[in-house]
Amino acid sequence: MASRLRTGALFGSLLIALSAVAVDTADARRGGSFGSRGARTYQSAPPTATAPNAAAPVQRSMTSPSQAQPGAAATGATAAAAQRSRGGMFGGLLGGLALGGLFGMLMGTGFGGLGGFMALIVQALLIGLGVFLLMKLFRRRSASTPSYAGPQGVQREAYPQAPRPAAGGSGVSGTPIGARAATRPAASTVPTDTVGITPADFDTFERRLGEVQAAFTREDYGTLRQITTPEIMSYLSEELGENATEGRKNDVSSVKLLQGDLAEAWREGRTDYATVAMRYEAIDVMRDRSTRAVVSGDPSRPTETTELWTFVRENGGDWKLSAIQES
Fold first, then answer.
1. How far apart are CA 264 and CA 266, in angstroms?
2. Which residues of the chain have a pLDDT value below 50?
3. Of 202, 234, 271, which Cα lies nearest the Cα of 38?
4. How many angstroms separate the CA atoms of 133 and 291, rounded?
């Protein structure tokens, strides 16, 4: 009987010890939504006629949450500290008792017999009850304090712009950003635009769409460095390098903008940001680098994609791609 109790206690102690050190593994897959939107990096962009669904949150960014949302980060840090304090007290004491008994068993002293083991259970229950009461008291106090909520996105009417001829030389053609707004139901509100985005800016955004795709296909690092931020450049370079290592080459051609409009534009100091929803089609295939044989994709059928691209400019300079979000 004593042997069975000792075996059961040993197994339970091992479970407690392992659960105390278990951690979640991060998803390190390439692709998805990545880059930086300044202080709004971890906020959802407002929906638009082009992208009525919520954009996927940024999954990879060099902007830390504390840089993006100082107030929210501080609140989160305080909550995390409180959680560590509550969990640390319970986990530390209970873990100490369990591991102490475990090491005692390994040394031959065990839990002090059946009576010692029962005393351990009683102590653990008392500690658990105390922690439960403290957490209940803490939650009551927290409920009386209003929590901070970040700015909410608003749906907007597409930016009105008259149709113009298709742009040439950039690999992108079709209807300009905002030109098809009349065919979609108008939203009740307008976008936040503290920058004053002009038709010339929209032309630049459309041109960047084709330039980025064309440079990526050519593996033109120099051009990518000129029209993207260093962060975006690092992600694109990583993908190009991985493709080369695996003997593949991504070819994107026949890029055609179908519809686009402004989601929001704002200013942080001397830095301007603009997030634009763009729905476009392109022939996107993966080829064998040596034989040029198609590994995946259909070279005769374009695929349609909707993404939100964020552009940034410093001191009124050129717009550069700084983030891509899936919609």
1. 7
2. 5, 10-11, 13-30, 71-100, 102-107, 109-111, 141-175, 179-188
3. 271
4. 69
* Total structural domains within the chain: 2
The span from the CA of 229 to the CA of 43, in Å, is 20
Spatial neighbors of 315 by CB under 8 A, at least 6 apart, are 270
- If asked whether residues 95 and 121 sit together in one domain, one would say yes
Locate 257 and state its tokens: 């903008």
Quote the DSSP letter at residue 60. B
Q: Exposure pattern of 247-261 as b/e (b: 16+ CB <10 Å)?
A: eebbbbeebbbebbb
Domain-ending residue, one of 80, 115, 143: 143
Euclidean distance between CA atoms 193 and 265, whole angstroms = 5
Amino acid at 198: T
| Number of neighbours of residue 280 by Cβ within 10 angstroms | 23
Residue 40 inside a domain? The answer is: no
